[in-house]
Specification:
Elements: H1 19-25, H2 27-30, H3 35-46, H4 52-80, H5 95-98, H6 125-148, H7 153-180
Length: about 220
């Protein structure tokens, strides 16, 4: 069961209309790393999760992503202003002005429709959680790019809030992964010699494939 609360999770607003930026922000409404994608992915993944805590986590974060979607849609609506005028959008989607009557649509910044192909579901908890961690990280990147391209303080406040919530979700999924990382597709894998060998293929020597021990690169902690 889902319940709509009229109060937004965080207040939204704009200092001035900006249809060109509204077109950019559509990416986080109907794009491949946007809020609708995240909500549908986590809800879909939850259907077969048997761990009650992780199932609740997926559904709680999914519900929050729907609230983020509402925040983004309202911000886009405010940025679009009050008159259809496709000439205000120099590049990107113009469907808002020629098809939707300024209503935020389930499209990305280029005008392509949202698709369930964005959603990753494998039925394997480890794989799905790792996919969610990656999804949250990519969403953060898109929000960071969007943040750099607007000087509207109110819009920046909204993006800053959403960025921080994506980071919170990222950490929650990481904690969940740590609790199940020896199950499913991770169970009994990485135990043979083949799982521990490193091939230096960037500069292979004559014995690169002879099974000789090669040390992998060491990255600073």
């Amino acid at each position: 069961m889902f319940k709509h609360e009229k109060l937004l999770m965080h207040p939204v607003g704009v200092e001035r209309a900006n249809p060109a930026y509204a077109a950019l922000l559509q990416e986080q409404l109907g794009g491949g790393n946007g809020e609708l994608k995240a909500a549908m992915q986590y809800i879909s993944q939850s259907f077969r999760v048997k761990d009650a805590k992780i199932k609740d986590l997926f559904l709680d974060i999914a519900a929050e992503e729907l609230s983020h979607m509402e925040m983004i849609a309202q911000t886009i609506s405010l940025l679009n202003g009050h008159d259809v005028d496709a000439s205000q959008v120099a590049a990107g989607e113009i469907q808002t002005h020629v098809q939707l009557g300024l209503n935020p649509g389930l499209i990305n910044a280029s005008g392509y429709s949202w698709t369930a192909d964005y959603v990753t579901v494998t039925g394997d908890l480890c794989a799905d959680i790792l996919s969610n961690i990656a999804s949250e990280q990519r969403a953060k990147v898109v929000y960071e790019y969007l943040y750099r391209q607007i000087d509207d303080k109110r819009v920046r406040e909204t993006i800053d809030f959403l960025l921080n919530r994506e980071e919170a979700h990222n950490q929650m999924f990481r904690d969940a992964f740590n609790s199940v990382q020896d199950t499913g597709s991770n169970h009994d894998f990485g135990t043979t010699k083949a799982a521990k060998m490193y091939f230096s293929l960037s500069n292979p020597g004559p014995n690169a494939f002879a099974g000789n021990e090669v040390s992998p690169p060491v990255f600073a902690q």
